[in-house]
Write a structure and sequence with these properties.
Elements (H helix, E strand, L loop, with lengths): L8 E5 L4 H12 L3 E6 L2 H8 L5 E5 L5 H15 L4 E4 L15 H29 L2 E6 L12 H21 L4 E8 L6 H5 L4 H16 L10 H12 L10 E4 L17 H7 L5
Parallel strand pairs: 1-2, 1-4, 2-3, 4-5, 5-6, 6-7
Helix pairs in contact: 1-8, 3-4, 4-5
Protein name: Glucose 1-dehydrogenase
GO molecular function: glucose 1-dehydrogenase [NAD(P)+] activity
Pfam family, one: adh_short_C2
Length: 279
């Protein structure tokens, strides 16, 4: 199937690399017009050059004015905005509660929570007026468990989920749908960047991240940006016309639980402790 987004215009933040770029590429292949927002100007411009239906604009999503400008650009260039994918973000270093300060709290909340709020705020009037629209926010498996991410990141992504539900209920009367995507361990450059590596080195290390992810989840395959993009496509398209206020977890089964030990199943550690043969 192709053309699932024909005639639709999408704004995608963080669209220059990783999950965002994979989503931009898939949306363009499905017939959408796409406005790409990012702070990686060279990468963003190169993505936009692949299609006459793509436009790149520098956008620091921690600044409300930049988010508004992206949405305004979509309306000015293509006449409407049908889809908003608030995807921009970054992996964060882990730290204990005692190490958290006001500056780090504000930075993480602005990037991961406020940016999505700004997107909803400025997309809402256009979507309400046209009586249609799909907004997809990016949460994380870290919103579900206490061991899937750093403290501040996990708090922010949990808040994104609740904000998504609030927006879904408030905007439903005008047929604007709002849903969240929850990626698991996805092999992208975001983790290397969080550790201070440059983009090129981080991209090269992404495959290593994928091999590690295979060992941490039930499904023994590395998650790719395209896996998330396909889920976002569903939430953005008319195929999900009856879906709103939901979170879509795409994680290889990570949040479902760990794989039991093949020799003794879930009771193997306990059997070892008691000196019993689980068979």
């Amino acid at each position: 199937m192709s053309g699932r987004l024909s005639g639709k215009t999408a704004v995608i933040t963080g669209g220059a690399s990783g999950i965002g770029r994979a989503t931009v590429e898939l949306f363009l292949a499905e017939g959408a017009n796409v406005v790409i927002g990012d702070v990686q100007d060279a990468l963003g411009a190169s993505v936009a050059q692949t299609s006459p239906n793509a436009v790149y604009q520098h956008a620091d999503v921690t600044r409300e004015a930049d988010v508004k400008a992206l949405i305004d650009a979509a309306v000015e260039r293509f006449g409407r905005i049908d889809i908003l994918f608030s995807n921009a973000g970054a992996a964060e270093r882990d730290e204990g509660f005692a190490s958290i300060d006001e500056a780090s709290f504000n930075r993480v909340m602005q990037l991961h929570l406020a940016s999505a709020l700004y997107g909803i705020k400025h997309a809402e009037p256009h979507m309400r007026a046209q009586k249609s629209g799909a907004i997809i926010t990016t949460s994380s498996v870290a919103a579900e468990g206490t061991t899937y991410g750093p403290i501040l990141y996990s708090i922010a992504k949990s808040a994104v989920l609740h904000m998504t539900r609030l927006a879904a209920v408030r905007l439903a009367a005008d047929k604007v749908r709002v849903n969240a995507i929850q990626p698991g361990l996805i092999a992208t450059a975001i983790f290397g960047r969080a550790l201070g590596l440059d983009q090129e080195t981080s991209e090269a290390k992404a495959a290593v991240m994928g091999s590690i992810a295979e060992l941490m989840q039930p499904l023994p395959v590395a998650g790719q940006g395209r896996d998330i993009a396909e889920a976002v496509l569903y939430l953005a398209s008319d195929a999900s016309r009856f879906v709103t206020g939901q979170s879509f977890c795409v994680d290889g089964g990570l949040t479902a639980g760990q794989v039991p030990n093949p020799e003794g199943g879930v009771f193997k550690p306990l059997a070892d402790l008691f000196g019993v043969d689980p068979a």
